[in-house]
Amino acid sequence: MTTIQIFLNGQAHHIAQGLTLAQALEQLLDAADTALPYASAVNGEHVARQVRQNVILNDQDSITTFEPITGG
């Protein structure tokens, strides 16, 4: 199995090549992190929750997760 290196919130991780953003987040985040709504970005570009399963990660991608900004 070929692996790639990605960065999740600044921390390096090795994951299987070909994983989607949704799959990687499921593997790398614990249940407490995913219990509340969160937003995600890959290389500084927002990725909507409904398309995370379509985004294939590449070597050296930088993923950021954060609380969504809400308000009036």
TrEMBL record:
InterPro entries: Beta-grasp_dom_sf (IPR012675), Mopterin_synth/thiamin_S_b (IPR016155), ThiS/MoaD-like (IPR003749)
Recorded coiled-coil stretches: none
One family name in Pfam for this protein: ThiS
Protein's recorded name: Sulfur carrier protein ThiS
Lineage: Bacteria, Pseudomonadati, Pseudomonadota, Betaproteobacteria, Burkholderiales
